[in-house]
Amino acid sequence: MASVPSLASTVQQRLAEGLSAALPEAGSADPLLRRSDRADFQANGILALAKRLKGNPRELATKVVESIPANDVLKEIEVSGPGFLNITVSDAAIVETLAARAADARLGVPLNEAAGTTVIDYAQPNVAKEMHVGHLRSAVIGAAMVEILEFTGETVVRRHHIGDWGTQFGMLIQYLIEHPHELDHKAEGAEVSGEEAMSNLNRLYKASRALFDADEEFKTRARARVVDLQAGDEETLALWQRFVDESKIYFYSVFDKLDMDIRDPDVVGESGYNDMLLETCRILEESGVAVRSEGALCVFFDDVKGPDGNPVPLIVQKSDGGFGYAATDLSAIRDRVGNLKASTLLYVVDARQSLHFKMVFETARRAGWLNDEVKAVQLAFGTVLGKDGKPFKTREGETVRLVDLLDEAIDRASAVVREKAQDLTEQEIAERGAQVGIGAVKYADLSTSAARDYKFDLDQMVSLNGDTSVYLQYAYARIQSILRKAGDAKPVAHPELELAPSERALGLHLDGFGEAVEETAAEYAPHKLAAYLYQVASLYTTFYSECPVLKADTPAQVENRLFLCDLTARTLQQGMALLGIRTPERL
Asked: Can you name the residues that pair with 378 across neighbouring β-strands?
């Protein structure tokens, strides 16, 4: 189905036609239309135009208004101030535009005509290590951007660049060789829980670290094992794979709790690029992008200097022949551009790594892997803080385990659901508690601009009041309750009816859904979609308190208000789904 033009685009079109009829010399001038508190829309473009044409802006504005023929969309245009146009659209135009949205499965959200292929690098846990609160934002923001970009027509390739390589594996593998039953499961053949897998890995990590620090001979054997791993020794690789597989059991259990879909083919860790590292170095050195400095292969930048004022290079290969993160990241770029045919590389990575990625992207540009056709973007995010505004730690000063955080959110949300629940079974309360709790954690993250730090405050997150996902979920559930009680009355749009002020406000905002999704996708800014949805729920709450739905004055008014309810629910449900949040039918 063709995309549904929004009221804003229709008004823009009418104004542009009026402008060129009244002022042919203006060319295709932009009316600069925006939403307004004084009317439905305000156009400010005539001020700049008058300056260019050396005319009186109020006179020009009046001329433009007179040249717009009477039509069924624009109810009133008033020239105000120095030459603004205040525009009110007709009630019929609002309802007809919403009816067209409602008839479209995509709710009028257009597909991006310039869609390409985006590789999103997000949710990057480390093998054999616990996931902590620091892993939350990359996972949640990345998963939302996957949904949003796919919905706008982008081909999205997910990449989970897990930390599955490096010197620590020599220590772990050597310890497992000398203590072969440390990764065995309690009951062979039984399904292993994420908790059991993680406690195995934790125990082994701590024991091997203690031995590594205390025993010089073990340290020597562990270092030799790293060489075996990098050389591709079969026994060493098989044991390394055991660590990866055990870690995946744990990762997947956490992602499952986060209600996120992670698939095996999407997990390509650091090890996935090992075979490319030498060639990446060779290409960079032969092309002169990288140079040898004190035995290491480095890329230098004029504008990147350390505290001492000297240039800080990107080290691609160390002087001992080993490779750092830069070699892996550059090889990943080569793979994603060359093999996956990406037009955009999106990295959902902590803002503290911004300098590293700035240098990596600039190196890739110099090498020709990034260019005008292929761009790389870091969607940098801030830190999760405790209620006190300091980095989030346990009382003992430890990093907070992600699983503990999610469990607590689900417990808190279940208590809120239980308190409000009238006819829910215990099983339903548990199910809704998980949907509300995980939704609360995701929404708190996504409703904050990614670049900012945010406070992790569970009391606030599961509150029924304020800008929370629970508030949005309850608005959706309330509408479902009304639709269930409507009996034979069905949602039907009635353009002939006059709208109450709160109906107009809700309708005009619902019409902006397509633009909100487009802007969110273009700017990689999920908080803009969250803000739009919160406004939907707020305007609906006002409408609900001011306009009786099932007890409206006439059957046509009942149908029209049910239509507004239904479109609001569908907009909330689709918008929340794009953020990765469930909308339960009953709460």
From this structure: 347
